[in-house]
Amino acid sequence: MIEFDRTILAKEFVLGTFQVTAEMIQAFAQAVGDTDPRYMDAETAPHGPSAGLIAPPIFYDVFRADQVPDPKVKFGKVTFNAGQRCEFYAPIRPGDTITMKTRITDVYEKTGRTGKMVFIVRETTYENQQGEKVAMVEQSQVRRESGSSRE
Amino acid sequence: MILDMHVHSDVSDDGMASVETYLRWITRLRQTRRIDGIVFTEHRLFNSEADYETLSRQYNILILKGTEADTDCGHILLYGVNEKILREFDLTNVHMSGRDIIQAMQDAGGIGVPSHPGRRYIGLVEHLENGYEIGETLRAVEQLNGGSSQQENARAIQLVQDRKLFGIGGSDAHFVSAVGKYMTEFKRPIDTMHDLVEHLYAGEYRPIPLDEARYPG
Amino acid sequence: MSRKAMYFEDVDIGDEIAPLPFTPTREHIAAYVKACHITEKRFTDEAYARSLGMESIIAPGNMGLAYLSRMITDWAAGAVLRKLDVRFRGFVKPGDHLTCKGLIVEKHARGSENSIECDVFIENAQGDRPVAGSATVILPTRG
Questions:
Q1: Contact residues for A46 (Cβ-Cβ < 8 A; gap 6+)
Q2: Less packed terminus of chain A by CB within 10 Å, N or C?
Q3: What interface predicted TM-score (ipTM) does this complex get?
Q4: Residue A76 lies inside a defined structural domain of this protein
Q5: pTM, whole model, 2 decimals?
Q6: Which of A27, A64, A146 faces C53 most closely, judged by CB atoms?
Q7: Which residue of A58, A147, A151 is in closest CB contact with C69?
């Protein structure tokens, strides 16, 4: 039986609101060498199919909270990102205000090449100032004894 | 009869493809390679409610359901999971006794086949080397696994030879494009899980790579 | 680069997405970390990364997703990523020679949103896939 703080399951936490600027979008796109004019070119983007500058889908990664809910799993010494399941509903644009909300939806164990692992699944939604959901990211984190090699 | 004995759909926590997407991919693969059926062996659960009969008829592909259990001697593929097994074992328990479930499967009319035995920690070979007593009921292991390295499959082949076991092949696909990488070629036709279990104990089959899954003539 | 639109009618199940090779350097990782205001030290502090049992600093997982997203839109100008689902099976380290790859496994003709499903991977020089997953991409139609 995995020991953790079960009271935290499915409780929704509002992690914060964030302003989006064109500079943030361009810095993010440039960091992975993405030159798509929809993200980079304020002059041509308004005339393209996206009707204005938009952020790349993975731009949600710039929204970061100081405090995230922690189920306090009593296993393992180190936490890694095991996977992400993302859905993108609408583009994020400069001038948007994005609200980030999160819930811990599951905690479970399995075994892999490096031994026993406990998974923590967190679902985060991103909403714009119109209350429109723009993205959902379900992240699986894994608690392991060490980081010496991957599964 | 050629079956991919080890496939994960999106019902498994780390599976990426729906059952129907696999079936459409197999239909395309069948233009050049022979695949008669697949077994969905989902991680740590048996999908009792899923009924694949209609899809099976629609695509003319045999679809069977199994489980891949986590145990104290590695992962084990369970063919012929039934109510008796589900009452006796909690499939989410990663500490269950591999020896016990292999025995219980035989007693219940099914079979437990250790998967990727050559892998570290989740493969049987390492546990046997550390003194694990698997018991007398072990008949077959997954000799060729699509997610294993060449060395890992070589250790599985060695185990089959050392213990005079039967060997199956499975893709361990979690993605559509990985299905069929290794499969099992049976000498006789199989229509049901009951047939499959019977043939697994009888031993007239071999693991094959996708490239060898050809139509006769 | 010239950006070519890719239309739903022009692609088939089994088609490969144009691969995207990349080698993340410490500078690239630092730029990503800065753009995302990441404070976690395993991406910047070598000693800290080793204390966790890793060989060196690693790239953030989402950086790999951003490259996969770029692979798709470099290949099909105007493509819209609807879903991306990946598992991290290994670390991405600075200096690793990587290639983003993809393969179309399904087409869905649904009127206003015609989409393709793709198996997508990041493969390293040893042939291992530290990142592997599935993407659903909306493509425009000629009609």
A1: A52, A53
A2: N
A3: 0.95
A4: yes
A5: 0.93
A6: A146
A7: A58
